[in-house]
Amino acid sequence: MSGKLLVVGDSFCSRYLQQARKVKATKRNSYLWEISEYKYWFEYLGEKLNLDIINQSFNGAGNQQIFDNTLYALNTNDDIEFAIICWSEFDRVDLPFTNTGGRDSIHINLTLENETYKSSEKYNTLFTDDKLFDTKCMIDRFLNYSVAIDNLLKHKEIKNIQAFSVRPYPEGSKKDRKQPLTILKEYMNHELFDKLNEENFFMFPGTKELGGGNFYELIGRYWNDNWKEYVLNSNDDNLANEGWIIDGHPNAKGHKLIFDKICSFMLDK
What is the pLDDT of residues 97-106, one digit of tens each? Predict the structure, then answer.
């Protein structure tokens, strides 16, 4: 029986195109149906390691869901040989949601105005007004998750890499947010920060602002001068009145770049 490669994360780790096409086609997202199928970075990696893929990643997943899905995969599979756990933004809040047909949940990103589910706006307002899921609290949760997963994978003798799929605390629209660098200072000064496994953490500690990086910063706008070559949709000129239509998720070339960088990291270890 072939061993398994476990991949858990958000949309940078999911089969994004297939998941994104489950929504209703509109003028705003019509580009999704114009893109040919492409190879994902984890498919390249599975072939390189000669491992079958278990993918528990979902578009929009936050760190609680990523933690929970990692535990679920480890509890239900005895043949995982390698794991890549890719964390998301500190401010993504995960709530259980039973109508998705899988291990998915409502994702409420407190840094963004437009949400996947209609109910997200309601909860976003409630949480913000009642000061629930404060960013400092979410940093604490992430660090607990990361250290716990590292210890568990060591115990199970599973080779692994942790990474950030996206920037831990990107720019957003939350009116009362602190400056991002202040939040990142809270992250680095946390008592658990030094317990993160830097040796196995890709582009530690997760953003160029702190001397590291993440998948998005490898390919994304403002971070890669040639970003338009690496993303699914770089056109923000048309349909301007219908909202934000740049799709910064990696295209075929972007996925190959992420794979190449992961391989370089593995060789340097």
Answer: 766 556 667 7
